[in-house]
Amino acid sequence: MPSSRRKFIQRLTAASALAATQSIAKPIVQVIRPQAPAYIPNLKSVSPNDKIRFATIGMGIQGNYDTRAALRNPDVELVAVADLYQGRLQTAKTAFNNPDLFTTRDFREILAKPDIDAVLIVTPDHWHDHITIAALKAGKHVYCEKPMVHHINEGKAVIDAWKKSGKTMQVGSQRISSAAFQEAKRMVQAGDIGAINYIESNNDRFNAIGAWNYSIPPDASPQTVDWDRFIGDAPKRPFDAKRFFRWRNYRDYGTGVAGDLFVHLITGVHFVTNSLGPNRIFSSGNLAYWKDGRDVPDVMTSIMDYPKTDQHEAFQMVLRVNFANAGKIQNVTRIIGNEGQIEFSEDNLILTRKKLPMAPGYGNYDSYFTFTPEVQQEFVRQYDAQYPPETRKADPVKEMRFEAPKDDDAHGKHFGDFFTNVRAGSQGTIEDPVFGFRAAAPVLACNESYFSNKVVYWDPVTMTQKTGPEATAAKKSGAPAKKPAASATAKK
Ligand SMILES: NC(=O)c1ccc[n+]([C@@H]2O[C@H](COP(=O)([O-])OP(=O)(O)OC[C@H]3O[C@@H](n4cnc5c(N)ncnc54)[C@H](O)[C@@H]3O)[C@@H](O)[C@H]2O)c1
């Protein structure tokens, strides 16, 4: 590495470390973890110039948002775009104010360019693993949108490619870089709500765009859209603009409400609790309203059991989406412990602390009044002896609000973490592929449970799917075990 570049990186690293110790109110706080996790080597990255030159692969809705968030960081430059719809390639040149921006329908042309350091992969879910692995093999650093993979059995190949490459990779559930999530983690780790026993979240909607029926451009055709490339390894079918522009509604390309929405919450929960994931997952639901040809449910509830670890007690998590909620929509996320709860509201959070007194009390709707007077007297005598007055008072309920700084930019900071680690030659991002897969796999298991009508068993430590007790019992009795759903487990 030329010494001028090394000095530049050292300066940046020192500045970033300083920024990290200062205030969370800064627009971009870049954090270098002092040490990468033990399972990865800490290889040096060399970029041919001072700026990190990146390309966006998939310049649709989120591709535009991601690119803008990336560009809110210093010393990075958008140099190329790949997309499969001609209009979006054209729009990118004006949107990013660069008529000479390199654009292509073929992402491989981007990977072949030696002067591109990093790629943002913002395609539909069925392309994530293919482009990620190809990019890492081509020596690019990768920012890949959530969910990291389309199917559970694709996760390990991505992790292996990342480890082998020595490149930096960040998965894109950017909310964990928000001040609110950082604060929630601090509160949980400080024991502010006691031991967590239950987490709930719902994400209801009642509008067509919210239910993924995005606008289709009137010039959509096999000429303006590279349909064959879009299909990739999904089943072949004739051109269908609805499938291209509303791909979330089809399992061939998307991952339903679980992969699209639950994944953000589970990522946040793993970040806050230091959990590796659930070991039992069950979903149920229905396609209740949006019967427009989609093959994913619009109402779905999933229950996940998290086993006790050295980081937390066992807890249950219940996630729900209802895209047909014509009632009052009150979306909320609550982390509930035995001494309080944390409730997220927009970008802020409310901590409520509530501790039970030691004395259980008696009277009112209780069995006490059913005792004879003599027994009641004896009961009170024993109770008074066991519970002196100081054990009878509950601590007053305390509520604390955390207001995120107005300019808190989670998205920009998530990219900041990525770029800082790229510069440092570190693989220790806040949402590396091991973390990303530990969040993706359980939500993909939610789909497997829904479509196969079964409980899915998962080993969060080894990241492998397990056979459930039903199959073990069936084996013992000689009955054929139910096979895992082909759609959820078979390689595309
Ligand atoms: N992190 C978040 O908050 C967040 C929010 C929305 C979407 N996302 C994720 O971003 C991804 C994209 O979602 P979107 O809403 O932008 O979809 P979109 O349909 O608006 O855009 C996807 C784009 O990818 C392009 N594309 C498809 N296959 C390609 C290929 N092989 N090579 C190059 N380009 C290709 C399409 O032409 C399209 O323009 C999804 O994985 C989604 O889950 C994340």
TrEMBL record:
Pfam families: GFO_IDH_MocA (PF01408), GFO_IDH_MocA_C2 (PF19051)
Keywords for the protein's UniProt record, in alphabetical order: Signal
Range of residues in the leader sequence: 1-25
Gene3D superfamilies assigned: Dihydrodipicolinate Reductase, domain 2, NAD(P)-binding Rossmann-like Domain
Residue intervals of the Gfo/Idh/MocA-like oxidoreductase bacterial type C-terminal domain: 206-272
Spans annotated as Disordered: 467-492
Highest taxon listed in the record's lineage: Bacteria
Residue ranges that the Swiss-Prot or TrEMBL entry lists as coiled coil: none
Positions of the Gfo/Idh/MocA-like oxidoreductase N-terminal domain: 52-172
Biased composition range(s): Low complexity: 471-492
Protein name per UniProt: Gfo/Idh/MocA family oxidoreductase
